[in-house]
Structure formats: structure tokens, C-alpha cells
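Listing S7. Sequence submitted for prediction.
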Amino acid sequence: MRVPFLDLTAQYNEVKPEIDAAVAEIFATSAYVLGKWNRELEAKVAAIHGVRHGIAVNSGTDALRIAMQACDIGPGDEVITTAFTFVASVETIVQLGATPVFVDIDEATYNMDPSKVAAAVTSRTKAIMPIHLFGQLANVSEIERIAKEHGLTVVEDAAQAVGNHYEGKAAGNWGRAAGLSFYVTKNLGAAGDGGLILTNDDEVKERSLSLRIHGMGRERYYYDEVGYTSRMAELQAAVLTCKLARLDDWNRRRGELAEIYLQELSDEAIGLPVTSVGNNHTFHQFTVRHPQRDQLMAFLKENEIDSGIYYPVPLHLHKPYASFGKGAGSLPVTEKVSRECLSLPIHQHLSDEQAQFAASQVAEFCRTAAVTR
């Protein structure tokens, strides 16, 4: 049985009438930039998260970069974050001239371990960037407490956490700003790239609006600072707005599939995702851990089951970012998880039978590996 990692065609077909009508309207009116679809998307995503402002930009990467710049993070500043993440989290810190300071992750959730944060604070620390990985928030209540104690800014990397909340408070409310990603693989994905900044801060909102259009102020062609070309195309905003109405149902379906995996694999010698207390998990990824991860991946491939590795090498061991870390062995949990993690197919167009088959093959591998070890 074929079990695909994603099925973007099925996703499009489900929303095809709405998307096609919206795209036709955009071409008919030639309203391609910062029009009604952008405004509608910004308002609706902000409302979902219970924040005052949403600013649409052209990628999740720019959402983080612009949000940090709008929070005055720049040269000489240190930003505490983790190395078990997509490169954009750290890349944007470096591009602003700031210094990423890596702390280890919690082995159960793969998110920032708050117990490591306070020791990483120095006189140069300006901010903490918790990364809400795989569909649940980091321990933001403790991170928020530490930030307040030390007078630090929190900028949330919520690229994988659209619609997520912790203790009833949604992403975007735990810091001065948050960055969402709408890359095609996300729970809410565009037809390409897209991102959005969430904030309750009026100053961050105004600066973000300016920075996304070259640093232009309220008067056209007059510039307040060096900015970016980061408008979200109306076509992308329209696609996202059309899909947004189905997001709750799609996330609910991911939860049902996750429950199948959890039940079928509960007795196996494999690490399973843990939803921390207070969190809702939307399962952007369903990531398991096994010491023979590469062999498991090959076994699944032989049985026509896709899988993916997020992330095979933590960022402090990559050449461009090695100078910001302390080398191999400095983040033991991060490094162990990177060696063992494997993400199984989980998307709203997967059938129960496909999930059960994938789980059965994982279970078969685990039993065989246990016997031969």
C-alpha cells in the first residue's frame, strides 16, 4: 500500500472551487498586491490567535527577520534559541548581525528546555526565541517568566504552530511578536511561500508594515530605514484564506491519525511524540525516534511508505553556524534526537488504513530490530 508523505493535489482538489474563483477574480481585477485578500487573511489569522495585528509577508523567514528587526534586535545582541530547527530560525538572527546562543532541548517534546535558558543569559542577551516545533508550543509560560525576570524580549518562532495554544493562550501572545510560515508543507500552506507576523504591539506592527515595503514610511517613496521586498502576493493570500476555513477540520483529522499511530505503536520499542500538559498538538509532523533510524527509513521505503528526517544535523554542527556553538557534544539531547528522529506521514488526506499500514510496518521493524540487536 502506498503511503505518501504529502498529498498536495488532494488538498487542492478539496478547495478547488473556492481557490479557482478567487484566482479568477484577482486576474479579472488585476489587483495583485496588498489587496482585499491580504487584509482578510491578516484579520482572520490574527483573530484565530487572539492578537491585535497580523502583517502578511512573503515567507516565514521574512516574518522572523522583520519581527526581530521591529523589536530592535541587531548587532551586538544575543538571542537564546535552539539548534534543532529549520535553518531560518538561526539564519535570520545572524543576518541581523545578532548572535545566536544555543541551549539544549527537552527530550520528550523536542522544544527548548527552559531549565537551560537562565544560565545562557549574559549582559548582551536581548531576546529569547522559542521554537514551537512540529505542532505544539514550547514551555512558554516558563520562558516568559525567565524573560520578565531578566528584562528580555521574546520572539516566537511559530512557523509550525498556526492555531496552537498553551494554557488557553495562542501563539503570538507569549512574546512581543511571532512569525508564522505558510510554506506548502505546513498545516496551512500557500501555493508556494508565505508568512505572517503576529503582534499585540503597535510599534512592532507599524515598523513591520514599513519594513515589508523597503522601509517606506506613511508617505510614498520616503523611507524611514533599510527594509525588504516582502509583500505577500494576493494570489497566495487568496489561496490561504480559502484554505483557512478548513484548518480546524484538517487539524482535527491530523489528531485522529496521530491517535492511530499512538495506539498501534504504544507497546513498541520506539520513541513516540509527547504532548506536554497545557498544549494542543496539531501534528505538523508525527516524529518518532529509533536508534536504527536510517534502517527504519529504508525499511519503510521498501514498503512504499514515505518518511522524512527533520532535522538530520543540528545547526551548531553546520559550517556557517559552528562558530556560534561549542562543537559536538555540547548539546547532547539535541544531537541524540537528530540521530534518531524520523517523521511518519500525517496529513488530512491520509486514510485510516494507510496510517494503520504504516504503523504496522514500523512495529514489524521494531520487533525485528529488537530480536537481531
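Caption to Listing S7: primary sequence and predicted C-alpha cells for the chain studied. Residues 8-29 form the longest helix (22 residues). The chain has a mean pLDDT of 96.
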